[in-house]
Amino acid sequence: MSKPFHPAHGDPVAPALRGFARAHADLVELHEDPAHLVARHRAPGRRVGLVSGGGSGHEPLHAGFLGRGMLDAVAPGKVFASPHNRQVLEASRRAAGPDGVIHVVKNYTGDRINFGIAAERLRHEGIEVRRVLVDDDLATESDETATGRRGTGATVVVEKLLGAAADTGLGLDELATLGEAFTAASRSLAVASRAHTSMHTGDPSFTLGAAELEYGVGIHGERAARTVERPSTEELVDRMLDELVAGLPDGPDDVLTVVNGMGGTTLLELYGLNELVGAGLERRGLAPAGGLVGTFVPALDMAGFSLTLTRTEPAWKAWWAAPAVTPAFPRGTENGGTP
Amino acid sequence: MGTFDQEAVLRRYAAATETAHAELTELDQHSGDGDFGDNLRGGLRDAVARFESGASGPFAALGEVFLDEVGGTSGPLLGLLFTELAQALERTGDARDNGAAARAWAEGAGAGLAAIQRVGEARVGDRTLVDALAPAVEALPQGFASAARAAGAGAAHTGDLRARMGRASYVGERAKGRPDPGAVGVALLFWAAAAVAEPDGDFPAPVTTPLG
Known about the structure:
With 339 residues, chain A is of the alpha/beta class. Chain A is 31% helix and 23% strand. Chain B has a single domain (6-197), classed as Serine Threonine Protein Phosphatase 5, Tetratricopeptide repeat (Alpha Horseshoe).
């Protein structure tokens, strides 16, 4: 048992939002009741506001990606819970550009409904809205359910590419189409060797033996559909890459990669994994075209990692390399990315 | 043709949800997380208070409270319906004649159904509140009693359906046998409208608890 360092009483999200706004006061402003955060700066040519949000516990997603080059406003819910439609509504009102708003929504029923209700209300006010639904999780691909794939690690890729595209002055429909293309070209897969710590009991939310691995795990502390005997790290990455490459639609050989920690995984591990991923893609005839290594879409402190691959059109590379002045995206200058 | 009084519908709906609270809660414990009775009753109490404060008309108050304050997913979805009803009634100049009111309701409830389906992505037969609302919209041109009968029958029929959407989809076959609480909540609205517009009409209540 190892309890996290949340305040002794009450909801951990509200004080964390205040602390976040205090830490990044030059970039974001916090509004409470209902809770939403807004970027202080945006490119002058941007005609469409970009709004995202979702449950908390996945920091730095989404508020960490507020700022010039990425998101204009976000609506953070309680831990692992969708934001209320009123949060999305207020965030969208503040973010709306002359052409309207795009909602970047991870594919979960609660998020779809609450963003959807906000979209209806915005349309009543004369604000145009389009939704980009992120549904990249290969582990939840099934013909038997109506819910579709979950939205996970590709969210940060979509938010980066869409932000850079929006800064070029593209309109609402063009951006919505592009957002769907970014998502469609992305697949992710996650594994975990230890569940996240329950905030209430201090115990892991589920238990795994030392020789076991949750394969295809989500970002909300639920078990994966499969528990597998733990292979070597090299064998594991090979198996994940095989499935991801087979799951990707056809497209260019250039591939963006996100090696994402789930909250309890060290950078020493993640960089080692990134080397296996890069070499593994090259062996498969693909061309790693840059990407991210770090903790971007975690599930509290789960020990594990996710891999995201995005087949990248030539025009997207400049958007990936474009500057993003945000609290958490690791690129602040013109020279930051790999073009 | 009798006369139609929006305020009386709000009050009758609020009274019916007070009376049926235990039954709605019990239905939701059967298929969901058990908070629907609390959410509907709490929302109606707040809407009556908001109306009485003079801030909004009866249906505008319902829409504002259910969209802004009520938790869960079905509460804000009902807020979309109430808002569309309020706007349709406003467009027709707060019709006090039953026929004109039923036409305004047909328009508003139709727009509300469309919004709820856009957002919730539920179809008829998915065991949701759409199963009560869609037949009511179709029946409204024949009057409020007809709409109340259609909504009640639609709600009752959800007891034979397996959920494809919403929280009840997680319990699958186990939810069958009892109607969906959201559908019953919608049927109560149409029951209240008929009880005001056609007090002598023939339309059974959508709950087993006597509504008085």
